[in-house]
Amino acid sequence: MRLDGRGVLITGASMGLGRAIAEACAAEGADVFLCARGAKELERAQSEIAEKAAPGKKVHALAADVSKPDAVEKLVQAALKALPNLQGLVNCAGIYGPPGALDEVDWAEWVKTLEINLFGTVALCRAVLPAFRKRGYGKIINLSGGGASGPLPRMSAYATSKGAIVHFTETLATELKGTGIDVNALAPGPLNTRLLDQILEAGPDKVGPDFYARSVKQKKDGGAPMDKGAALCAYLLSSDGDGITGKLLSAQWDPWQTLREHRADLEGGDIYALRRIVPKDRGLKWGS
């Protein structure tokens, strides 16, 4: 019950990782406000999560498109009204976007991917900040992932959005230093969700043979455990995560359960951050 007394707004909460995070938060004692675009799926998730929530905890929901600025403002105001104890935001809403070579994909779909994944994340952060500043405390978690730390050819919209989210997260965390508001990016690992099914349906000609082969193997092997990403999210939303900010954390590989013991090492440094590599970092003498 380490989230007892805390309110958390979670987008993309009707299915997949967003729903797993919502379930974990509710089980840990949080009051939660769920958001997704699909009203029917969201209503079903709200009902089922409420059944599993800790006794007396609230589970609210509102369908909204996070790519629409007006919808974001209405969502945050509704969440603040329903949960006066709102102090956590998890930006989990996202899509893969159009697969294929950049000069062949539908441009409107490419832009829409950025509007949902990146602009939606930024807009929600912007919308909750006044309330978090007033409280002098807050937790923001932005979902990053496989497209952030390396190239992802033929999935350029997704990769661009996720890389930008990491840099935005670190920038916002630095901007908010000393306010009591922590901002982190979470990489859950390769998950077997509807997004993976979309990759398999698109086929190797669209997404590229290497990415397709990895996706087939992932489907067969089961992917990363979804509960690990949800558990890391609950950790960062709790007081255990106080002072950990501006980091890209892997639920699958990083020792996040003990991060509070290493806050001095993490503060102000480039551990769990994306950085430019120069020749001398690889033992080469040229270019230095």
Written description of the protein model:
The relative contact order is 0.12. This protein is 45% helix and 13% strand. It is an alpha/beta fold and 288 residues long. β5, α5 and β6 form a beta-alpha-beta unit. The protein starts with 6 loop residues before the first strand and ends in a 22-residue tail after the last helix. A 7-stranded parallel β-sheet has the order 3-2-1-4-5-6-7, with helices on both faces. The protein is globular, with a radius of gyration of 19 Å. The model has no long low-confidence stretch (mean pLDDT 92). α3 runs parallel beside α4 and α4 packs parallel to α5. The protein has 10 helices and 7 strands. It has a single domain, classed as 3-Layer(aba) Sandwich (Rossmann fold), CATH 3.40.50.
User: What are the secondary-structure elements, in order, as H or E?
Assistant: EHEHEHEHEHEHHHHEH
The number of distinct structural domains comes to 1
CATH C-level: Alpha Beta
Number of β-strand runs: 7
* CATH architectural name: 3-Layer(aba) Sandwich
Instruction: Give the overall form.
Output: globular
| Biggest sheet: strand arrangement | 3-2-1-4-5-6-7
How does the major sheet shape up? 7 strands, parallel
